[in-house]
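Retro notes, structure queue

What went well: the backlog is down to a handful. What didn't: a couple of records were mislabeled last round, so from now on we paste the full input next to the output in the thread. Example, using Cupin 2 conserved barrel domain-containing protein from marine sediment metagenome:
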Amino acid sequence: MSVMESKIHQIEVRTWEGEGYKPLVSHRDWLVALMNWESRFDLTSIGKVERHNETDEVFVLLKGLSILFICDQEGIRAIDMQPGVLHNVTRGTWHNVIGTRETQWLIVESNDTSEENSDYCDLENDELTALRSQFPSWLK
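Corresponding output:
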């Protein structure tokens, strides 16, 4: 049988134009989602971080401008994301993103990532100050 004769495989095409997070493909233990800018990713809304206690989470900037920030025992660090670069936030790492209105991220994570196995926290004033001091010029 030639490749052209095989009808076992299909291609599913998915997209998401709305605001926020939308899982689009799920298979066994993982899912792929698109996440578009919404007000919680705006500079004026920074202050919250989350961590997933049982899984890593992958972020890929598709369009727009974005920083990914993490908090750990060494403090808070901001990463100026570049399109097409994969950022794997490892299990248990406090993190969040900020982006411009046209920003879109590709997210890959475990199928069972949920509020039940994640934690959420507000940043302290000194952490916010440290984060702001690391903003790239496009965000100031």
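Agreed that this is the format going forward. Reviewer comment attached to the example: Residues 16-139 form a domain with the Jelly Rolls fold (CATH 2.60.120.10).
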